[in-house]
Amino acid sequence: MNETSARLVAAVVAVLAVVAIAFQQGWILPVLAYGFIARALTGPKLSPLAFVVTRFVTPRIDVRHQYAPGPAKRFAQTIGALFSGTAVLLWYAAGEQVAALVLAGIIALFAALESGLGLCVGCKAFYLGMRLGIVPPSVCEDCAPYVAA
Questions:
Q1: Which residues contact 104 (CB under 8 A, 6 or more apart)?
Q2: pTM for this one?
Q3: Would you say 43 and 107 are in contact if contact means Cβ atoms under 8 Å apart?
């Protein structure tokens, strides 16, 4: 998976999450949730944001692109889907806007770490799971260098 694309998508996610918090815009939460779910299930195919970034933006950026194993990134997107999906339920089903916005804040923080520093917290959790034997090595043979690091 192209790290440049991942960081660009994360930057937009961070901005959207901050806007949702700053202006208390709950309608942004389902947008975030859909994006995370789509990326977790299909990569950039069904996520409009990821599709635009991977097809049009990243190819036009003149940098040396780095790549990371897909399973760890998909795991991170799944965590984002759980957080954003829970935020949607809290906002719309439970009427708990503050709790939903706290989750949006966590999403903003993790997305900002990914976009600004290249630190994927979900990926680190995935690699930890591999180290602890929770995730079998056969799930991601390409992850071995990251687990040993």
A1: 17, 20, 21, 28, 29, 32, 84, 87
A2: 0.95
A3: no
